[in-house]
Write a structure and sequence with these properties.
seven-stranded antiparallel beta sheet; six-stranded antiparallel beta sheet; Glutamine Phosphoribosylpyrophosphate, subunit 1, domain 1; alpha+beta; 36% helix
């Protein structure tokens, strides 16, 4: 057993259990993270999938941080077929309209990203990393509250349309309920093939053939050639400074990292510990309002690395702020006592409702999500990445403290991470209090800015500037801020957000 200590924060006990097994068998932080992510593809299947995307931030001791981009990508499209998808409205938040079906499926990147992380930074043999999730797929896992809640909201609308998805998510004719034991038909065989042949069998072998047959036979776009040509990309992160920490954020073509950085920069430019509670809440809301405008402007323009670095300049952000005085994802954070940190955010979109027969793999709907296609649908070139809010983040300081953090939640990803960071670094709350603190999210509805908020948010300073919409309880709509921390003395801890199921491990 390794003497290295680990802390894991994720959304499912089964996800954490897979990481624990790998840690106890001598894996390093990257091995643990990859094993957790693979387990999540079963235990948290409607939040992420091998048929979806992933971003992986890695910071190893004495090394520069990297981000592995496994975003969904555009397939080659000869002609658009209007009947290849259907629109559904999901009663989530104020209601979300998305397109689902075979014509909404983009090239998935998650497995290529996980394999790239392991190839470059892992330690254990690939088969040993795959072993826990294979066992789970054979024996079944217990459905957590997040899976059950999403099926209750979206199951009939999205996942009941196709027979293969009904077989996976409506066994015995009813939706999977919390605490049910379930598995995905044929998924153990898919995982066994990946354990033996690696990601190649998924992107070039019989699994890719199954994707092509199912999607093409229903007028979708994805082909085996699209999958074979996909590659994960290792990128240099955006790096900013805040409160004596250095933060590594997801770079372009993702937009989420720059938006987190922009909000943190705006808040830093105006922060004073002596500000009243009203003024701190108003500053947070104004930063979110400004980010919403900024995101609209940048996503609709020429979004690139040069532009991202410009909007992270604090003088520019302060000027921008002074002038104004945007579902289905999951996040896991892993740190080890040797100072390594891995932060992974994964997504299956809202789900296409399509499961590939004979594989157990459920697919993304990235082609059909309006927020991921700001220039309009079908405008990207083949293999081009979709815009993403996902921003797994890592922060560290000179004393040796390292923090892996992030959140799921579509447009709430960036605002949740920012509020979590403000609670940790600005308000000096302890990790548990930082995760538990009530949240707000600024949205634009009918050309008016609305502050949606949980109970406990002080709204007295917001009333004259924003419309307000109160939630009755803490809600998964506001993301799930999962953090893992290694302190200056090498001690590790993790906190998982109970807005979703939440699970942690400390060795």
């Amino acid at each position: 057993m390794s003497s290295t200590k680990f802390a894991i924060a994720a959304d499912s006990p089964e996800t954490v259990r897979a990481g624990q097994i790998i840690a106890e068998n001598g894996g390093n932080a990257v091995d643990v993270a990859v094993g957790c992510a693979l387990a999540a593809s079963l235990a948290e299947v409607l939040m992420c999938s091998l048929g979806g995307s992933a971003f992986i931030s890695i910071k190893l001791p004495g090394k520069q941080p990297v981000v592995i981009d496994g975003a969904d990508a555009m397939p080659g499209i000869a002609s658009v077929k209007a009947h290849a998808w259907r629109e559904v409205v999901v009663p989530y938040g104020d209601g979300i309209a998305v397109n689902v079906g075979h014509g909404s499926i983009a090239i998935p990147g998650m497995l290529r990203a996980l394999e790239a992380a392991w190839t470059h930074y892992g330690h254990m043999p690939w088969k040993e990393i795959m072993a826990p999730v294979i066992q789970m797929a054979r024996e079944g896992v217990t459905a957590n509250m997040t899976l059950a809640a999403w099926l209750k909201l979206a199951g009939k609308r999205i996942f009941h349309h196709q027979a293969e998805s009904r077989k996976s998510f409506f066994p015995q004719g009813r939706a999977i309920q919390e605490n049910d034991l379930y598995t995905l038909p044929d998924y153990d065989q898919t995982l066994e093939a990946i354990a033996t042949e690696g990601a190649r069998v998924f992107y070039e072998g019989y699994i890719a053939e199954a994707f092509e047959q199912e999607i093409q036979s229903h007028d979708g776009y994805l082909t085996r050639s699209d999958m074979a040509n996909y590659r994960a990309i290792i990128r240099e992160p955006l790096v900013i400074s805040s409160q004596n920490y250095t933060l590594a954020l997801n770079p372009p073509p993702s937009i989420g990292g720059a938006m987190v950085g922009s909000m943190i920069g705006m808040i830093d430019s105006r922060w004073d510990p002596a500000l009243s509670s009203d003024d701190k809440i108003l500053l947070l809301a104004r930063a979110q309002e400004s980010m919403l405008n900024l995101r609209h402007e940048e996503a609709g323009g020429h979004w690139c690395e040069q532009r991202a670095f410009r909007i992270l300049e604090k003088a520019w952000l302060k000027k921008y702020l002074d002038k104004r005085m945007s579902p289905n994802t999951l996040h896991m954070s892993i740190v080890s006592s040797d100072g390594a940190a891995v932060s992974i955010t994964m997504s299956n979109g809202y789900g296409s409702g399509i499961t590939i027969p004979g594989t157990g793999v459920t697919c993304n709907n990235s082609l059909g999500e309006p927020e991921l296609n700001p220039h309009g649908f079908f405008t990207l070139k083949p293999q081009q990445r979709f815009v993403s809010n996902m921003s797994p983040a890592i922060a560290w300081n000179e004393a040796g403290r390292v923090i892996a953090m992030g959140s799921p939640g579509a447009s709430r990803i960036t605002t949740t991470i920012t509020q979590g960071w403000v609670n940790l670094a600005h308000n000096k709350l302890d990790p548990q209090a930082s995760v538990n603190a009530p949240r707000l999210h600024v949205d634009c509805q009918d050309d008016k800015y609305v502050v949606q908020h949980e109970p406990g948010v002080n709204t007295s300073g917001l009333k004259q500037h924003f419309q307000l919409r109160a939630f009755d309880n803490r809600d998964m709509y506001f993301g799930a801020f999962n953090i893992a921390i290694r302190d200056e003395n090498g001690r590790v801890e993790a906190v998982a957000d109970s807005r979703r199921h939440g699970a942690t491990y400390h060795s």
